[in-house]
Amino acid sequence: MDAYDVAIVGAGPGGLAAAIKAKELGLSFVVLEKGESILQGIIDTYPGGKKVYPTIPKGASEIFPSPDLEPANEPVEVYVDKVRNNLAAHDIDVRLGEDAHELIQEEKRFQVVTSQGSYTCASVILAFGKSIPRDLGIYGEATHVRRRLDDPDQFIGNASLVIGGGNAAADIVAALSRAKRTAEDGSSVYWAHRRGQFRVDKEVARDLGEEILLGGNIRILHEAVPRIGEMDANGVNRLLIGIHDVEVADGIRVHRGLSFPMQHVIACIGMQGPAAVFEKLGLELITSDKITGKKPKSGKQGARFIMLDSQLQTSTEGIYAIGAAISPAYASVDDVGSLARSKHSDLIYSAASDGIKVVEAIAERRNV
Ligand SMILES: Cc1cc2nc3c(=O)[nH]c(=O)nc-3n(C[C@H](O)[C@H](O)[C@H](O)COP(=O)(O)OP(=O)(O)OC[C@H]3O[C@@H](n4cnc5c(N)ncnc54)[C@H](O)[C@@H]3O)c2cc1C
Asked: Ligand 1 atom 41: the closest Cα is on which residue?
């Protein structure tokens, strides 16, 4: 197929508002969502039953930018269903399970590379929110590693690996162990952390201790470092985790490691802000001291902001960033190159408004 006018990364309120506008303006587009549902970011972060408020940012118009996405104080589950029906009525298709991890620039086009394929487009809208799992930092890809535990029973019958040194990882280790023990499954739960010590609260440690005493098969790996993600000869994506590394002689080192099928690995290593992702995509960021002129406190690096023009276009022409990914602030560059810190509220309203604004700019550029 020819290049899309626009590829939209993320099916949150920002990405969906952009898609609805693109459809209305007759642009060709593809929406790429890494989760299993539209609004996955909301599903993952809102507590069950939470009401979704139609909050309007200070000073903004009372008219909600995209009626299809306007919340009505309903529980989140009802909101998600409502938006799903509205999208279907517009005949908008979202490609699920597409984790976008690379952007390749080719003359006047881009390739958005995802876990499932690659999409050629003239413009890209980055609407990936800010709940972004921290990178494992391995050589190769980790896209098949899970980031949360949906159903412990899926791990029964196979040794599993949990990576991370905090409470969330410990909870998952205990839940997996409990599920395996109840099912009388002897396979182990390996728990790995790159440091020598785990950092968990007393209550969490007590639950884990209890699980071990009850016969849980938990194996602890200290100073275990994820190293390589690769596909084996049988087509299985595997993660190699280094567990022992000694120098024997003349600069020769002996490495020991364990290799797990990625589908049995859960990495619970926290979230990172979108700055790291923008940087990985080669987009320009600027530290707060460069905007304010104030030096950061000694030893501290100032916060980093994505640089955007008045149309929310990044330093690379054709790539735009919107929504929660640019909240609570970004560095706005005006036509003469002056920089200012622009506050941006983290609301459904703002994300939807950004999506519409950016698609209008893309349509205008295309028609010039
Ligand atoms: C607990 C909580 C309660 C809130 N309550 C309200 C409220 O009541 N009213 C309100 O107006 N706002 C509320 N907000 C804020 C609101 O949810 C956000 O402002 C809004 O969801 C931002 O939309 P977005 O599209 O920018 O990002 P998100 O909603 O985060 O959507 C981003 C999407 O991109 C996907 N994605 C991420 N990375 C990739 C990738 N690499 N490839 C493909 N897809 C990717 C994610 O899975 C996600 O679906 C709340 C926020 C939180 C955390």
From this structure: 100
User: Alpha helices, DSSP H only, in the chain?
Assistant: 13-24, 40-45, 76-89, 167-182, 202-213, 274-280, 288-292, 348-367
The pLDDT value recorded for residue 300 is 59
Over residues 15-23, the mean pLDDT reads 98
Index of the ligand 1 atom closest to the CA of residue 46: 1
* Distance from C-alpha of 192 to C-alpha of 258, rounded to nearest angstrom: 11
Does the model's pTM come out above 0.85? Answer: no
pLDDT digits (tens, 9 = 90+) for 301-357: 678 899 999 999 999 999 999 999 999 999 998 888 788 999 999 999 999 999 999
Tell me the pairing of strands 339-343 and 329-333: antiparallel
Q: How many CB atoms lie within 10 A of CB 229?
A: 20
- How far apart are alpha carbons 71 and 61 in whole angstroms? 16
The Å distance, Cα 126 to ligand 1 centre, comes to 12
What pLDDT shows up at residue 67?
Answer: 97
Query: What per-residue confidence (pLDDT) applies to 245?
Result: 84
Residue 14 CA: nearest ligand 1 atom is 25
Tell me the two tokens of residue 37.
Answer: 């549902």
| Residues flanking ligand 1, CB < 6 Å | 9-15, 32-35, 40-42, 45-46, 52-53, 55, 71, 98-100, 127-129, 131-132, 323-325, 346-349, 351
Contact (Cβ atoms closer than 8 angstroms) between residue 57 and residue 352: no
Nearest protein Cα to ligand 1, atom 3: 46
Q: Which residue has the tokens 């952009």?
A: 18
